């Protein structure tokens, strides 16, 4: 706005209240004001009415804010609501676009046309009469091409994507990616050995979810390892499943493992059984099987829900060695206290990546590991900086 | 004792399920299948009234917004899996749902579950509890670090990490026990209040 | 083609939803809103499909007289009654549908999970053992929290609720936060692989 | 048979009977333990107290009857609190089974405070889609919910006058028994749109939400039946949750006794008579 325009606006802004008062007296303004009502004194007006484009949005919105009337939360305590009016010119007619309750000092105009300048008028009302109006300077809405409050997410996302993709590529090229030995896997081997010594079968429970759950997929990979050991030791392996698809997947996996171990003849598909889809029905079925077969080692690997403790309790009462692995946070505590060894959350996925050597799994695991390392570095740096009063980093981590 | 037939039905259902505690039996199985059937019937009615009608019928036939034909068609493709020849088409809606869901989730998870958590860990109020918290976050993160063998400093860090994990699991254990007991209290309140009328 | 088209759909849908987070301007904002609405429509069909699958399993069991086929009759009949009640007379409060919900669905569902209180009690007697240092720590923390969170704890020692709150707000919170960050990294990398078409397991099989 | 072995062989049905008694006796003969209010519950209460009358609050019923003893009392207390402060409730659900529960709790409270459907509260019902439902509500409520749960067009309901998106909502409370639930409301509602979000959750999931509380992503939280009981106390009344607290205490005591007792024999007898054969 040029200099002349600005002074014109200033002129109108100072003259406008007078114009409105004249209107009200002559009865031209809204019906809310009638000169001879019982409340002779209208509430004092709000001040500092400001309007500006809502930043970082798709356009079409202007935020209007003001300082509350002296009679709102103080003074005469008479304000009931604020009326918000809008016009494209100061001299033009202001039309009400909304109202807010007393105590609120902000309103969002959601119907502005981008690029059109609007003037906003705010008046306090006590339900009978209206205060003098206050008018904002002109404001227009616009849309933005980049959300400036979200740069941190963009950087973090780009970095993590880069790392994951980089390591997947490396793994596909056949580069050796180091993964530390997972203690739980040694426990798995040992349990199979102990069951063999006792001359008892092994039971493997793959959870109650279907093959579309990543925990079930990880479970199948670990089943491959267990089956191989079982084949080598010539120990019977029972796999009760709660989904028919999991049953076929388990049969495939076990058959392959027996083939690898050079004992295809020892494979018995009937030991890998589908029981039922029902959660508690399955738990009761597995319980019965445990009591009949008395396995020497029981594995619980996959997604478990409330049935976990029913299974683990019965397994414990049969005296079997129990090894569990799941990423269900609410079931892990029960497994930790009722089993001899438990793979916790990500350890389950790490174990399956370690065993399968699948580039996708290995590369992602590695990429996430780097993500963790960077998080640790930022945390350490941030905590030190902040405790020395340098809180810039907190600001940078704030997303809007 | 209640004279409301609805309450009596509910009591029979309750006792039928509780009979599982004695052992798995036909009454329990009956109730269990009744439960699955009723919940499926519930879904049918709810998806119809809150899904098909407002999300498809009204936009298409009342508002004549034919843009909705696209997702409608995509949705119908789900059923192509019942026809072997066209079964591959059922991947299209799945692809859309997975893609859109993943795209929406990525920034949301980065923000709420990573960046905001790191920000929350940094504070300038220096108390014992704060130090306990910071050490805990760092140590637990290092426990789930798989690229180095847990030796030397990493061994100490992950050892501290497992302590925090176990304390956290203990809290979950305690809260889960609390939740299960609450559910039993709820049923006991129903039997004692609504049926027998001996408490209020 | 059979694989390319779904990969393309996933990529476009995912990218639009992802990019709009950073670019609020049109046309991204509009496509974003449109995809939101489309998603809700497609989701309706996904739910119907889920129901259809279960109905199929049980009608097959009934037709083949598979084990427990009698129970499949119970299931299908109750499904029919509940469905007809809701479709025919609406789901408004006070109707027949609502009556079935409160007098059958509600008691069945809540009793099913109340069973767990009994199993927790028996497992705490028969299975939860301090067999390792870790399990001991877990049980100790569990007992403190269980006492701290109920009025009984306050009665035993008036600082117990404070101790329970402290465990929840600091050590527990710290461990949970690190686990949350770890899981979040995993979900983001899986989602990324799905959008970019590297992860294709969902295309396999059915 | 030694004592240890005999104790181990104890029929679990005896334990079932004991836990049943631990719950039933305190319900019939209340002890009257005092209930202390914890900070997250207090914060949630204050978040509602701080709202201006007439503000709209979303209460999302993301739970089902299986967790009713824990969450339904929260739902009732919240509805009563909102109506007592003249707030308007926009009810909805990310779980299909939550719809009748939200409706019943709101109707009950509305009767008590003389509020009417469509003016002071509405139940928008269920939409499938989880996280996308939240983002869709954030952008456009009438397009997401053209009708309420029973098929009335929302354009005819006065409470929805001028309601377009999250700009017209002051507070969101998710009553959540799992996913989708609090997580989605925090990620989209709080993270992406900057709304204030509060939660009422089952005790099972409560420990996992403490990071959100600490980072200010949740304004307050009720956890489990105890959380509900605390809220009832803040509302200066009593309800099913606070009446259940004595039973909760006794049952906890019994379970802790079981754990300690069994572990004592386990540790004593481990060397001589291994618990496991």
Automatic annotation (TrEMBL), chain B:
TM regions (residue ranges): 6-22, 34-53, 65-83, 95-116, 128-146, 153-175
UniProt keyword annotations, A-Z: Membrane, Transmembrane, Transmembrane helix
Protein name: Uncharacterized protein
Origin species: candidate division TA06 bacterium DG_26
UniProtKB/TrEMBL annotation, chain C:
Record's protein name: Uncharacterized protein
Entry keyword set: Membrane, Transmembrane, Transmembrane helix
Stretches that traverse the bilayer: 7-23, 38-57, 69-91, 103-125, 137-157, 177-196
Domain of life: Bacteria
TrEMBL record, chain D:
Transmembrane segments: 250-268
Domain of life the protein comes from: Bacteria
Keywords, comma-separated and alphabetical: Membrane, Transmembrane, Transmembrane helix
Organism: candidate division TA06 bacterium DG_26
Name by which UniProt lists this protein: Uncharacterized protein
């Amino acid at each position: 706005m040029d200099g002349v325009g600005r002074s014109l606006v200033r002129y109108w802004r100072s003259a406008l209240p007078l114009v409105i008062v004249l209107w009200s007296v002559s009865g031209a303004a809204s019906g809310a004001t009638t000169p001879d009502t019982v409340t002779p004194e209208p509430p004092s007006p709000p001040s500092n009415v400001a309007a500006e484009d809502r930043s970082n949005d798709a356009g079409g919105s202007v935020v209007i804010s003001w300082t509350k009337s002296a009679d709102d939360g103080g003074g005469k305590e008479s304000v009931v609501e604020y009326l918000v009016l809008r016009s494209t010119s100061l001299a033009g007619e202001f039309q009400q676009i909304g109202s807010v309750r007393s105590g609120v000092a902000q309103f969002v105009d959601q119907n502005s046309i981008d690029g059109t300048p609007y003037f906003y008028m705010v008046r306090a009302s006590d339900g009978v009469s209206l205060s003098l109006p206050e008018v904002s300077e002109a404001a227009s809405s616009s849309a933005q091409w980049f959300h400036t409050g979200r740069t941190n997410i963009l950087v973090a996302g780009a970095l993590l994507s880069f790392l994951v993709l980089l390591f997947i590529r490396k793994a596909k090229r056949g580069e050796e990616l180091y993964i530390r030995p997972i203690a739980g896997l040694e426990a798995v081997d040992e349990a199979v050995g102990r069951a063999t010594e006792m001359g008892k079968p092994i039971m493997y429970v793959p959870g109650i979810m279907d093959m579309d759950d990543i925990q079930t997929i990880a479970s199948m990979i670990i089943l491959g390892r267990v089956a191989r050991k079982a084949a080598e030791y010539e120990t019977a392996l029972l796999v009760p499943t709660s989904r028919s698809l999991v049953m076929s997947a388990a049969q495939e996996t076990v058959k392959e493992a027996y083939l690898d171990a050079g004992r295809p003849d020892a494979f018995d598909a009937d030991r890998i059984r589908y029981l039922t889809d029902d959660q508690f029905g399955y738990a009761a079925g597995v319980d019965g099987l445990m009591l009949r077969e008395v396995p020497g080692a029981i594995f619980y690997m996959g997604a478990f829900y409330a049935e976990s403790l029913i299974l683990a309790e019965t397994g414990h009462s049969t005296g079997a060695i129990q090894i569990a692995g799941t990423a269900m946070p609410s079931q892990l505590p029960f497994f930790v206290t009722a089993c001899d060894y438990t793979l916790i959350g990500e350890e389950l996925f790490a174990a399956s990546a370690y065993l399968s050597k699948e580039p996708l799994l290995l590369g992602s695991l590695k990429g996430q590991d780097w993500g963790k390392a960077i998080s640790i570095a930022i945390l350490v740096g941030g905590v030190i900086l902040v405790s020395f009063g340098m809180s810039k980093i907190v600001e940078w981590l704030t997303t809007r | 004792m209640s004279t409301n037939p609805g309450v009596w039905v509910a009591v029979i259902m309750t006792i039928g399920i509780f009979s599982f505690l004695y052992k798995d039996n036909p009454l329990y199985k009956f109730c269990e299948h009744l439960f699955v059937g009723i919940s499926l019937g519930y879904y049918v009615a709810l998806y119809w009234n809150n899904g098909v009608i407002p999300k498809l019928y009204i936009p298409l036939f009342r508002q004549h917004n034919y843009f909705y034909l696209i997702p409608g068609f995509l949705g119908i493709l789900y059923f192509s899996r019942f026809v072997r020849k066209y079964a591959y088409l059922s991947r299209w809606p799945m692809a859309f749902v997975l893609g859109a869901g993943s795209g929406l989730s990525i920034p949301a998870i980065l923000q709420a579950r990573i960046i905001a958590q790191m920000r929350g860990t940094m504070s300038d109020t220096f108390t014992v509890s704060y130090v306990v918290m910071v050490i805990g976050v760092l140590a637990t993160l290092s426990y789930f670090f798989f690229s180095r063998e847990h030796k030397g400093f990493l061994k100490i860090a992950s050892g501290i990490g497992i302590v925090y994990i176990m304390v956290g699991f203990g809290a979950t254990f305690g809260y889960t026990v609390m939740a299960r007991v609450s559910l039993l209290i709820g049923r006991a309140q129903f039997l004692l209040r609504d049926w027998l009328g001996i408490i209020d | 083609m059979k694989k390319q088209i779904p990969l393309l759909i996933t990529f476009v849908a995912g990218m639009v939803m992802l990019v709009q987070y950073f670019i609020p301007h049109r046309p991204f904002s509009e496509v974003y809103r449109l995809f939101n609405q489309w998603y809700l429509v497609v989701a309706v069909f996904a739910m119907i499909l889920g129901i259809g699958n279960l109905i199929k399993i049980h009608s097959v069991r009934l037709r083949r007289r598979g084990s427990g086929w009698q129970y499949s009759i119970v299931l299908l009949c109750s499904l029919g009654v509940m469905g007809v009640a809701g479709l025919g007379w609406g789901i408004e409060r006070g109707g027949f549908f609502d009556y079935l919900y409160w007098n059958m669905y509600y008691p069945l569902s809540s009793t099913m999970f109340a069973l767990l209180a009994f199993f927790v009690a028996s497992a705490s007697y028969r299975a939860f053992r301090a067999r390792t240092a870790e399990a001991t720590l877990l049980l100790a923390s569990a007992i403190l929290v269980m006492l701290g969170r109920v009025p009984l704890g306050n009665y035993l020692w008036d600082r117990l609720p404070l101790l329970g709150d402290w465990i929840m707000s600091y050590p527990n919170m710290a461990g949970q936060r690190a686990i949350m960050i770890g899981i979040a990294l995993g979900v983001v990398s899986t989602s990324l692989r799905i959008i970019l078409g590297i992860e294709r397991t969902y295309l396999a099989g059915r | 048979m030694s004592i240890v072995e005999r104790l181990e062989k104890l029929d679990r049905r005896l334990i079932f009977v004991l836990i049943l008694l631990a719950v039933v006796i305190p319900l019939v003969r209340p002890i009257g333990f005092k209930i202390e209010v914890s900070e997250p519950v207090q914060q949630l209460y204050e978040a509602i107290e701080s709202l201006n009358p007439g503000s709209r609050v979303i209460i999302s019923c993301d739970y089902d009857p299986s967790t009713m003893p824990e969450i339904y009392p929260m739902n009732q207390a919240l509805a009563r609190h909102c109506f007592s402060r003249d707030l308007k409730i926009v009810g909805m659900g990310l779980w299909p089974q939550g719809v009748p529960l939200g409706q019943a709790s709101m109707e009950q409270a509305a009767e008590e405070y003389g509020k009417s459907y469509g003016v002071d509260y509405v139940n928008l019902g269920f939409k499938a889609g989880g996280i996308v439902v939240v983002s869709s509500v954030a952008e456009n409520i009438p397009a997401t919910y053209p009708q309420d749960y029973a098929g009335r067009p929302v354009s005819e309901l006065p409470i929805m006058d001028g309601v377009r998106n999250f700009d017209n909502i002051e507070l969101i409370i998710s009553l959540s028994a799992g996913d989708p639930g609090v997580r989605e409301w925090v990620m989209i509602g709080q993270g992406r749109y900057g709304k204030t979000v509060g939660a009422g959750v089952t005790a099972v999931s409560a420990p996992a939400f403490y990071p959100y509380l600490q980072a200010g992503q949740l304004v307050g939280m009720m956890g489990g039946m105890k959380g509900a009981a605390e809220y009832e106390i803040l509302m200066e009344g009593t309800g099913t949750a606070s009446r259940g607290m004595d039973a909760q205490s006794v049952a906890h005591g019994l379970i802790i006794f079981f754990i300690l007792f069994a572990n004592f024999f386990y540790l004593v007898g481990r060397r001589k008579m291994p618990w496991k054969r």
